[in-house]
Amino acid sequence: MRRFWIRMNILYEKLMFFIFLVALLIVSWGLYDAWYVYNKANDDSYLRYKPVPGESVAEDMPITDDMVAWITIDDTNIDYPVMQGDNNMEYLNINPYGEYSLSGSIFLDSRNSADFSDEYSILYGHHMEHGAMFGALDDFLDKRYLENHSTGTLIVGRDGSKVYDLGVFACVKVNIFDKKALDPEALDVAKELISKETSAINTSITKSSHILVLSTCVEPVSTNRLLVFCYVYE
After folding, report:
1. What pLDDT sits at residue 24?
2. What is d(CA 194, CA 26) in angstroms, rounded to the nearest whole number?
3. Are 23 and 31 in contact (CB under 8 A)?
4. Which residue has the higher pLDDT, 103 or 74?
5. Among residues 44, 203, 224, 15, which one has the least CA distance to residue 131?
6. CA-CA distances (angstroms) from residue 26 to 13, 16, 33, 45, 101?
7. What is the C-alpha to C-alpha distance for residues 111 and 31, in angstroms, rounded to an integer?
8. Model confidence at 188: pLDDT above 80
9. Can you give the pTM of this predicted structure?
10. C-alpha–C-alpha distance, residues 10 and 1, integer Å
């Protein structure tokens, strides 16, 4: 009987060791995954390929041909290439180099014209921690921040063939199933939304008929979206 209990104790110790080892591996993987996602989201190596108007594209530029523009909001973390796929799922988990990445890319709605000639253009980006990607949009809910970070630039084309100035003027939280603000054909809906539901609005910005909206998720699993509206100046 004593030998039986000794064997049972040995098996128990081995089982507990195995459970501990599995738990350690799971925690280690979780930490690695969080580190990997964070570093990918904060990868700024692509900044060296930011288009310079009037200059040709570098021959070794690794950003894929799906790049249609570059967006910069002054004095913020938003300084990214803009991609456009055949649909709005393509660049959710693909970075500008065409590689798999949970942080994905900033991308233009597939229904919009790649040259930004539409009156209403929509950009999407993941809401990453520490203000990466479009996680930086949260700050625009504060009116003072909005007023102090209201300028930016949209460089269109891989070679910077066209440059627009941007004027950030409004920030809105919206449920995408209640409002059709994320439809390139729904500019009137967007204007109505801005006039009625803005948490922050900068009335000092010069108006334009050409509007660009930046969209990101508010929570990880939610139909709510945070929208930051910019006037586009010719």
Report:
1. 47
2. 45
3. no
4. 74
5. 44
6. 20, 15, 10, 30, 21
7. 38
8. yes
9. 0.80
10. 14
